[in-house]
Write a structure and sequence with these properties.
Layout (H helix, E strand, L loop, with lengths): L1 E10 L2 E11 L4 E5 L6 H9 L6 E6 L2 E2 L10 E4 L11 H11 L4 H14 L15 H13 L5 E5 L7 H18 L3 E5 L2 H7 L2 E6 L2 E6 L1 H6 L4 H6 L5 E4 L4 E2 L2 E2 L5 E5 L5 E3 L3 E11 L2 E8 L2 E7 L8 E5 L5 E4 L6
Parallel strand pairs: 3-8, 3-9, 6-7, 7-8
Antiparallel strand pairs: 1-2, 1-4, 4-5, 9-10, 11-14, 12-13, 14-20, 15-19, 16-17, 16-19, 17-18
Helix pairs in contact: 2-3, 2-4, 3-4
Length: 329
Amino acid sequence: MLRLERVSVRFGQNQVLNQVDLTVASGEVLVLLGPSGCGKSTLLRTIAGLETPAAGQVFWEEQNLTAVAAHQRGFGMMFQDHALFGHLSVAANVAFGLRIAGWGVGQRQQKVAELLELVGLVGFEGRSVETLSGGEAQRVALARSLAPDPRLLMLDEPLASLDRALRGRLVNDLGQLLRGLGQSAIYVTHDYGEAFALADRIAVMDGGRIARCGRPVEVWADPQTEAVARSIGHQNILSLDNQGHCVLGRLGGQAGLVLVRSDGLRLAPSGVGARVVGSVFSQGRYDLQVEVGGQLLQLSAVEPVGLGDSVYLAWPDDAVVPLVASADG
């Protein structure tokens, strides 16, 4: 198990990580989620041993890795650009780390064959990596990262350069592969769709800290802060006045912020009136944007709804979640 205790990293006067505590269990896929600049890639590099913390410690089980060199940690890392060697074949790329580690030719060939079958690239051994598609290159990079049997695999936005349709297919394949191997992994992304598709747990970062960490269903249902809510795709964030009122009525007892979850907000025969200003059909449902008192809200509906239609909104009590405002808000 990986364990971080109060890890801080500074670049000059800029504190990029601020007393981060984090664990990754054996066989767990943990996703680090957050916008650019929140510290997630720096955290990954610190775990890998590529950045030195100004304070705090990094452990694997009971072994203190804080001062251990990156190549001695037994971790694997996969980057966004894949970093494949253009002058080498697919098989040679996958076998590169094994050759450096002193594996024999027969052992390397057997391991490469196993990995290419695992990632769906049987028959690609002799291909030049420069002839591969983006998805194929991603699979070669993954096979190379898995070749040394790392006790922890770290992936830094590995799908970011691919088109959305291909990312959707590959993230599902990747999740099945990692779980089939029982591979402990940390996956960095700014895409909440990827995070929910892949994670056993999601750690949402904000300002160099872990702002929320939990199972996807827990984080979605109760993001706790405005920054986390926005990072995971929530949009229905409303300000309450001193009496707890907003455009939907009284949703609290005092001033503050609340989230009205889009999966709880629904069309109803009666309730708060709204006007439809956006309607997009997607995967058997209509993704709606409605306007209430100058506030835009998101929800989904099964029945067809047209632009300009007048509708009524209702929601259960548990769809309303109190939030702590962002520090910069």
